[in-house]
Each structure stands twice: as C-alpha cells, then as structure tokens.
Amino acid sequence: MAAQIEGVLPAARGRLLEGKPLADLTWLRVGGPADCLFQPADIDDLAAFLRGLDSAVPVFPMGVGSNLIVRDGGLRAVVVRLGRGFNGIDTDGETVTAGAAALDAHVAKRAADAGIDLTFLRTIPGSIGGAVRMNAGCYGSYTADVFVSATIVTREGEIREITAEELSFEYRQTAFPEGAVLVSAKLRGPKGNPAELHARMEAQLQKRDETQPTRDRSAGSTFRNPAGFSSTGRADDVHDLKAWKVIDNAGMRGAQRGGALMSEKHSNFLINTGGATAADLEGLGEDVRKKVYDESGITLEWEIMRIGDPLPE
User: Fold this and answer.
1) What CATH number is given for 213-307 in this structure?
2) 123 with 204: CB under 8 angstroms?
3) Catalytic residue numbers?
4) CA 212 from centroid of its chain's CA atoms
C-alpha cells in the first residue's frame, strides 16, 4: 500500500481490500493492484468514508470495468466500486431511477416493460454510472437525451443531486466533479409499446453480434469517431467520419502487439487475445493513432479510459 494511504483509511461498514488486483474487475483482464478497493455497504457508509478520508488521497470510482485499461503498475488511489444495494431499478410510468451499479442492459429491459423507450442502452456494455459519466450512446441517442438528474456523493462526503447543466454533457464526456461517486440516476425516455420496444432491442442485439466481436475480450469502441473533421480546411467540406474507417484506411485492421489485436471483425475494437498486458493494449492503440495521423492527419481520441502507472522499466 502506498505511504500516502497507509494508516489514513477511515473505518467503514463495507469491504476495504488493500492491494487488490484490478485485472479481474475489467473486461480486458489487465492491470495491476489498487492501493485500496472500497465496496461501501450503502450510501451513508460511502459518505462517511469519503468525509473521513484524507483529502490528499485520490479517489477513483469504478464501475464494471467495461471501458477501462488499468496499467500494469496499478493505481495509487482508493478505488470505490459499488455493488449490491446500488443496482436497484424503479419506474413510475414516466421515469426510471437506476442505481449506478445497474447494468445498462437491465435498465433498458425494465424501462421497456414499463413502456419507456431507453432501448439504446440495451447494447451498451457497462453500468448506468459509467453511462452518465461518459454520456454513453448509440443509434443516434445519448444518455444526455434522457437524463433528468443524478444523486452523487462528493469527494467531501456530501450527498446531493446534480443536474444536466452541471454535468455539461458533450460527446462521450461530462464535467463530472473530481473524486465524486455517482450512486443513482433518473432517466426519462419517450413512451412506447412494450412489445415493440423489446422487439427493437432484439434486432439491435442481432445487428451488434453480426458486426462486433462480442465474443472476444474487448472494452467496446477504442476511439471516438472524429466528428467534424475537414480534410481541406474548408467549412463546407466538414464531414463526419467513423473511427473504424480511418483505421482501415491506415491499414491497421488486424494489427497486433504482443497479445493485443485490432479486431478483424471491427477494426475499432481492441482485443486481448490472451496474455496481453496493459502495455500491449495501450501501445497498440498508440500505434494505431500514429499510423492514422501519418496517413490522414486525423488525431484519434481514446474512448477507452486509461488509468494508473506503467510498470517500471
């Protein structure tokens, strides 16, 4: 455990695990240990813990690790991971209130049962906490479109509501308060027929499985689409591009480094073929970014979050 954390952890009713390896908690199955992993018993336990934690100690909220590379040297922070007690889903006929640990797919299905259209969430890997924080979306819909409010616990241990204006939703990002932990979100979608909503989701799943490497070990889309790029600099030539297309154009579909692979099925998916390190995965991603820039002048931005320290050389 890092010296900055040792001896300064407040008491908690939930689980405190020192030096917990994070590889098993991420979809890519890579990464070193966190100084401490905290799994709070409930929202009051979380608030009390953060209030008592030295303000110099970093806090990193972690969901199901579906969009994350933890570097091989691990993370010098207290990682907060919500579990049971934070995954409830309630509807009132107009809105859906979901705990941050509720899976996106489960929220979409429960909403459809109530005649609320949140179908775009069905094929998004991860939990609602991550969906809000990263403004997750697909099929032209984003979390920002359905967001009403959220409950957070601030780094100082205050429980409060946060609005869309405070989050300042943008493409694949928000202005989420540093060190705060999102515990639940309220969403409002259009009304729909439950049977039709479920049928739409089944069609989405089929399309996803046909076009994406859903059976491989990945973290979803690797890079954001380079929207609004102009190859000539003229305003009337601005167009939207897909990340997979510029990766293909640069000849990087199927590129490899160690156990890391840019998927042959969908070239914007970074795959751990077995035995990859975080350095392999991130290094291959940087290889792709460099080749795309050299070929087209486009700078791809990571959609996968990368955190922690590399192993010492």
Assistant:
1) 3.90.78.10
2) yes
3) 172, 221, 303
4) 18
Task: Supply 201's token pair.
Answer: 């989701």
What integer pLDDT is reported at residue 234 of this predicted model? 35
DSSP state of 1: -
Question: What number of other Cβ atoms are within 10 A of residue 160's Cβ?
Answer: 12
Between the CA of residue 172 and those of 28, 156, 266, what are the distances in Å?
Answer: 20, 26, 20
Assess contact for 95 and 186: CB atoms under 8 A: yes
Q: Tens of pLDDT along 121-153?
A: 999 999 999 999 999 998 889 999 999 999 999
- As assigned by CATH, the class of the 89-196 domain is alpha beta
- Sign for the pseudo-dihedral over CA of 295, 297, 299, 300: negative
Query: Percentage of the chain with pLDDT > 90?
Result: 87
Say if residues 286 and 302 touch (Cβ distance below 8 Å): no
Fold agreement (15-81, 213-307): no
Q: For residues 236 and 123, give the distance between their C-alpha atoms in angstroms, rounded to a whole number.
A: 34
CATH code of 15-81, in short, is 3.30.43.10
Distance CA 100, CA 77 (A): 20
SS3 sequence, 40-90? CCCHHHHHHHHHHCCCCCCEEEECCCCCEEECCCCEEEEEEECCCCCCCEE
Instruction: Give the C-alpha separation, 155 to 245, whole Å.
Output: 40
Residue 152: half-sphere exposure toward Cβ, Cα within 13 Å: 23
Helix (H, G, I), strand (E, B) or coil at 185: strand
3-state secondary structure of 130: helix
* Every domain of the chain and the residues it spans: 15-81, 89-196, 213-307
pLDDT tens string 184-235 = 999 999 999 999 999 999 999 999 999 999 999 999 999 999 975 433 333 3
Please tell me the pTM assigned to this model: 0.89
Closest CA to 101 of 50, 37, 15, 40: 40
Is pLDDT above 50 for 236? no
Strand order of the β-sheet with 260-262 is: 218-221, 269-272, 260-262, 256-257
